What we know:
Helices cover 42% and strands 10% of the residues. The chain has 18 helices and 13 strands. Strand 1, helix 2 and strand 2 (83-89) form a beta-alpha-beta unit.
Amino acid sequence: MSDRDLARRDFLRLAAGGAALLTTGAHCGGSDPAKPARTAPTDGGAKGKPTLRIAQWNNYVAGYDRWFDEEYTKAWGERNEIEVVVDHFDINQLAAHAESEAASQRGHDLFQFVLSSPSPLEDHVIDHREIIEAVEAKVGRMTPHVERSVFNPTTKKYLGVSDFWGQSPIHYRTDLWGSIGQLPNSWEDLISAGTRLKALGHPIGIGLGDDAEANTILLGLMHGYGASVQDEEGRVAINSPATVAAVKVGASLYQSAMLPEVLNWDITSNNRYFVSGRGSLIVNSIAAIRALETQDPELAGKTGLLPVPQGPRSRLGPYTVSIYVIWRFSENQEAAKRFLVDLVTDYRQPFVQSRFLQFPSFPGAVGDLASVLASDAQAVPQDKYRLLAAAAEWTTNLGYPGHANAAIDEVVKTSLISQMFAAAARGDMSAVDAAKAAEAKIKPIFDKWREQGKI
């Protein structure tokens, strides 16, 4: 049945009857093998059961996909008499697969966006308002920057339902920074101390390449100096004195504290660099230190965490927001809606299974989050992750101070932010000219999406 045919009272009845998550211990084994994408069946599943087809990323956390595929979705399917099929894709390929499904009007019932936004495909997804209202009736409001990621204030449409968001704290070598008597609290600290650390053979590692990771971190640098791509109303605002100041800081950081190779880094380069033992600091999700805890416990014990660097205007950085969408052409919308309600209203086990990478988009879905963070069996010290309890105070959405939208998504996908910083870092342009050049590329993108009525 379509989203128009599902009566509101019937949906709320289904949501209220959703079962709780399956409780199971965390897996901490080796990385999951890559799973080839399957063409999900269009007819009934095993023994004539209806089929719910889910597409999502290959999770960074070892064991998470096995738990989700073989335990959580299997148990949910048995309770609801539905065959659940989960297909996994590389995080860098998710957006392309989503575009292909939208173009063909065939594919999965649920599709997860992680690095990118569903905004460019808004016309192909249902309005998820009733799902969000059902969840909020159970556990309360979602995190504000998550709401800005899933709601389009222009069309008044909820583009999807978010199960989690990620944080991107500073990872720093406590032994190296301790040897020079400094802490990496601010962007200025990274320049002053980074110069000395580079001389010691341990440069800072912040990418300036053409990938989403670099662009989100550099947006955090911009926000620290009061700059942004757009304002609260969705108007292009990048060509400003604040942006120029941030670009100058980025260029100085590159020239004094980093290596030329950061200009060509990809999305995983900073993780690999830090795990190698060369790096004195990166800004990234806790995937890096979680990998260290398994691969090199000694180095993990020397790694400290801090919030994103402080700027003169703010301490704020955008990062990942996971968004599941139900396509308008989904063949099993009723089951997809029920699955989402069940998943996001009791998120403790996904939070634990992800080893804290996946913070609940609805805070009320993990009632003991702070206490779990304060006592982790693998952390040294045991309360290393305690600071993440306040991560929502220094994490924001792509598009800050406005909402995420299709134009912002395109700006990040085309790496216009990192290109602006890299041009100044290499000395190809002044910071002033780099900001002007970025504005010249970004304005047509916003004009295009505004003409389509999406911003």
